[in-house]
Amino acid sequence: MRLAGFVPPWLRPMLRRMHIGLIGAGAIGGLFAARLALAGHTLSVFARGATLAALQHHGLRLDSRGRSDTVAVRASDDAAALGPQQLLIVAVKAPSLPQVLPAITAMCNPQTVIVPALNGLPWWYFLHQGRRLRSVDVDGAIEAAIPLPQVLGCVVFPACSTPAPGHVKHAGGERIVFGEPAGGLSDRVQALTQLCRDAGFEAEASADVRREVWLKLLGNACFNPVSLITRAHTDTLIDEPGIHALFVAMIEETLAVGRAAGLDVALDPLQRLAASRKLGHVRTSMLQDAQAGRPVEVEAILGALLETAQAEGVAVPLIAAVTALARVHAREAGLMPGQLS
User: How far apart are CA 172 and CA 64, in angstroms?
Assistant: First the structure.
């Protein structure tokens, strides 16, 4: 099925050079910005503090595929000065999304397509079913500020880090998946997919992006919180027999929730863990955030999963226990949203 839907003129295949906005120039956002700028697009980046200073004085540096590139981007902490964009990529951590809603509004007009590149279950995940995820949008502020017809789903798999502000190190992985929140293929999804392929990503257009989000959640829901609590890398966790068994059971619980929610996800937990083990000595995004003193995505990854399990009537005792431990650990470390200035 193809959707006639919201297809702004800039998505026509003959248009190649675009004005692209980015909010969140960290690891994933920086990868997007650098690749797209190297492909010839004009990037406008909303940033603050040390990241803004680095972008304005030195540009954005990307280390990837054995080479280092530095690109110039237009960067400001005044979103209104950057103005509306044709495409806006929002690559902040989930706890920071409510804080950047004014910037999103300032960088959009009714024709802007908005691509949230977020971990966990995004606020839009069940909106087409008339259900809000209160774990990530408790009062509906995100839903009210970001028009759903302008949103495209996005799942990002590359592993990246930020050794310093304005410097992104790409460790591996190129896969990015785009799709309509309500499902189906559309012209704008396929155009955006081609745009990112031309920028060097292994981009895919999915007719069921919600399934792709859930597939990524299967790993994030176990690796991230346990790495937060233990401060260990993924290979260390997988190689520990007791934790390996815990991960298998948590993946099975997550699969059961997905089935109850109508998601057609079939996956062998042992194969999933083996694939992650091949990536080597990897720090999860939650561990990176904790070590940098940033708020961690406990609610977007685990709170939203628990909320869904409860709504579907599925018992998830291990996920519930790990979530409780992760929440207490994050609160005691001052890493929950609202605890950091």
Answer: 8
